[in-house]
Prior knowledge:
Number of strands of chain B: 2
Distance between the termini of chain A: 65 Å
Largest interface: A-B, 66 and 75 residues
Shape of chain B: elongated
Order of helices and strands of chain B: HHHHEHEHHH
CATH class of chain B: Mainly Alpha
Radius of gyration of chain B: 23 Å
Radius of gyration of chain A: 21 Å
Number of domains of chain B: 1
Strand content of chain A: under 5%
Number of helices of chain A: 3
Number of domains of chain A: 2
Number of strands of chain A: 0
Oligomer: heterodimer
Helix content of chain B: 55-70%
Amino acid sequence: MSNEHHHAAEGEYIPETYIPHPETHGTKTLWKVFFILLFITVIDFAIYFIAPAGLGRNIVFVALGLVKAVLIVGIFMHLNYEAKFLRWMIALPAAVFISYLAWLLLLEGSFVSTY
Amino acid sequence: MSNSATVSPKTWAGGRSPFNVSYGKLMMWVFLLSDAFTFSSLLVGYGAIRFSYSGSSTPWPDPSAIFNHFPGFHGQYLPLLFVSLMTFILIGSSVTMVLAVEAGHRKSKSEVSKYMILTIIGGAAFLGCQAWEWSQFIHEGGRLDTNNFGITAQGYTHLHEAGKFGNHFEWMAGDRQPGPVPFASLFFIVTGFHGFHVLSGVVINIIIWLNVLYGTYERRGHYEMVEKVGLYWHFVDLVWVFVFTFYYLI
Lengths: 115, 250
């Protein structure tokens, strides 16, 4: 059990136990993001009943969904504050592959009208 | 090289983490990236199948015509209200999770414990809502292999006339027909796969919370496990944002 009390000295690297000193950014930003997320959901709800169904409304919904995603990943999951390599390692493959897959399959789906 | 100003040449020379995070947290991120691909495949596959029904004689039903119930308001036409409540619950449990992580940075055991309990309650409430949604859907005839949720032209006319928000609304004879089978099966698969993630998240949250109470992280000197499970929990919330958008709004 005594191993658990060992703390890495500043800058010293011990595999798998290396913990950068956590920093707290306070709770103000977190509550702000929470209320923005709630507000966007209310906006979604309102647009659904105000705007007529169609491509324009769907684009607005997807755009608002992406705003929510950026807030959750960036602030709640703390990715905005992480090292640059980590940010790109997560964001780039997700953005490139998912949008490519969506583009290909939605295009394909609109041609496969066999029903 | 735009990197040279901020990144020393030693970044990849070994001896320190180029990502400036612990191994466990890095692997949690890699896992979540792979899980994001899984969920995007499910949702994109759903989109492709839905698109393939455009112009069909059994068109894809408008989701709000199906999911329009709210517990305690039997027979009233309340589309989107219940899933919005579920979204609120999940966003709320997300903010309590991130408050637990923040309390962990300050090594405040009692606050971490308090916010972990609130997160677990939120997750359980979400699962309860989903169970209600599923049982309602199954009760009305939602099955994996058949689908009676096709809506005829007469049905849509009836819906546009009588289906005002909050009004009493019930289907009449001739409003419904057998619809696209994947509508029901994809609903079970997509929300079920997400719901199973929520269930796993609640179980993992309980394990971490017990460890907080037991003092495991206090002895370890840091609360990084709370951060790791927090990443997973926020990811579940993130997936729900897109399920909500693609399955209910569009």
